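1st attempt posting a full record on here, be nice pls
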Amino acid sequence: MRKDLNAGGSLRAVMQQYHLALEQAICQLAQAVGNHPPERAEIALFFQELIDGGWDAYEEATAHESEELRKEDREILQLQEQIRQMLDREGQRQFDRYEDWLNCRMTSELDQAYLVGYQTAIRLLLMGILPADTLLARNARHEPEEEEEKT
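the predicted structure (as tokens):
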């Protein structure tokens, strides 16, 4: 799996800027639902692993623990094997290349989707602990650039 260095950089920038506020918010959320808040070191380690890519962001989503997903996996593998049997040696090499590129693309799409999800979750969390004008001012700085590009 390829690492998206830009994704880590974007997340790193947000985390560095708001890490104390995020740690406090996580502790408050844990207490609000009746749980014991995690230690600050645990929270910091989680975010560091998330940023560095040491934590597989979609490990749980791709574990295929449901019978339905395992059935779909079996169907896909059977179909792939049937296609391979119909191909000559060069066709099989091309099919292997196709599978490799398809897997890379799906991985990149998942990376991007999870990055957007994490950024959204962090922003929503920050909206609950920072003054609204702080986040709105940050977004407003980027809008004129986009408008200038359109004209």
